[in-house]
Specification:
Layout: H1 7-12, E1 16-22, E2 28-33, E3 39-47, E4 50-55, H2 63-66, H3 68-84
Antiparallel strand pairs: 1-2, 2-3, 3-4
Amino acid sequence: MPMPKNRKELEAAGYSFKELKTCRCDALLEMWNTPRGRVMPLDFKTVDGAEVCEAHFASCPYAADYSQKMRDKAKKKEQAASDVGPMS
């Protein structure tokens, strides 16, 4: 299912507004509950006169700090490097 493009589509798809927060990058975020019970930070902007939303982590310079998937990937990479050890 494609990501809803605006507030109206979000609500129609089962998302609900939760709260406003400020990110570490100083962006004001709208936190939305997803249909699967997770929370998603969204940015809203106006493009060609229409409101559009996108996941905040698509543009946040600190996205990796908040992504469990990205932290796990970095941890695996570190582990693989330490398993190799010094070259003989």
